């Protein structure tokens, strides 16, 4: 169980007498969805203006925590355990993840029946993820038996997460509104305005401080007068963008789904709105760069690429192909092309950038490191491992003069070691990764994500050279921190779990391996999670 064993509570609607705001009931086939909705609920900050006010269940907190999620729902017992009964009694709401698997789960049905007996139907919420409610075809039914027919249609709040329905953010807001006893429009409207303000602030700030290959990093050869002109243009950009975004903010209280943000972005990127900046190419480039970044945030990769490519043509015509501002734009196009899967275009641009930088020795050392990292990883993903390793080795001199604990230096060395590991040069990879993991641990602590990633890579390298026990100790050491840091279904968490399960089976610790397998992948193992952890065609070892 994720939470301590609760004490049975008397039937009450006061949060002070209840340990949990939500009890999540689900089939183990829906483990990933249950975990996602739990993280969404626990991570939601109730608007400050509403905190302390009275909802259906009493005074509203800063966050609706804790949440109870039963992770052992496939226990062999025919009856609900005392622990589950206590948690049901101590929960303000029951959230049922409804799917075809849940409709067949006797355990889910028992939890629903027990909750209704304790609290009635008023505090039951349904999250529909597949199938059909009250389906005419029994194989498509998604509702547990106690929620079917009139009970569902008239008394139960349902949220629809199927394709083309509520959408994940809107679904979460509906769940929270129902569970907290607030009007949905009230909560969604406040969340919409808060999200819009965050977006405006983020984009306006980005106009002044660009990331990675930013203009400030390239300005080593620009004089002070030009630098001041850059700052003034950044202010123009910031003011213009803020005014456009405020003008086009959606005014419907329907949450802040992608569908509401896309018209805002597209209106901001229109030729009409950008026409005042035709005489300011740098400001126009920054505007379109920010809008392209927003498209990336909304998974509109094609539209982002189009804007980045327009920027590249504009920069080359206005400043020349080797101007620092053009190099920045070229870097953005390369990164976006890599994200879109256009490896040929990305490689072409990274190589062009690297060639330009090598013609200007000493001017852009950090950018050189970053480009080699990106290009080397891109080549390696195409199974050109020797070429990738050679690229890293040929550019090791770029690391000279930097502290060994500098982030980009450590990342460079880790990427280099990864290529060596895949090439079978395990001992050399282990030496590099041992040093990198130790520096990360000392500089940032054992719980920091870069430390955990480096240790996972080190464990993989140790397996490659046959040091199984040492690898197992590292996998075990980082499994708990990964789960806490990024969640039980994050790709690195389940990749580490998969490796540890394999290793435990290999060393004969079958019972421990099967318990870990069930905890992270379900029983039987969820094929999608296994593929996410280890790749297509991979399987977990069989458990008795």
Describe this protein's structure:
- The protein is mostly helical and 544 residues long.
- The protein folds into four domains: 15-182, Toll/interleukin-1 receptor homology (TIR) domain (Rossmann fold, 3-Layer(aba) Sandwich), CATH 3.40.50; 188-340, no CATH class; 342-467, Tetratricopeptide repeat domain (Serine Threonine Protein Phosphatase 5, Tetratricopeptide repeat, Alpha Horseshoe), CATH 1.25.40; 487-544, no CATH class.
- It has 24 helices and seven strands.
- It has helices spanning 31-42, 82-89, 100-104, 106-119, 150-155, 168-180, 184-208, 215-218, 224-247, 258-268, 271-274, 281-297, 301-319, 324-340, 343-358, 365-381, 385-394, 407-422, 426-444, 449-464, 468-486, 491-506, 510-521, 527-534, and strands at residues 20-25, 54-55, 58-59, 67-69, 91-98, 124-128, 157-160.
- The strands form two sheets. Strands 4-1-5-6-7 form a five-stranded parallel β-sheet, sandwiched between helices. Strands 2-3 form a two-stranded antiparallel sheet.
- Strand 6 (124-128), helix 5 and strand 7 (157-160) form a beta-alpha-beta unit.
- Residues 1-18, 72-78, 196-224, 234-239 and 242-258 have low confidence and may be disordered.
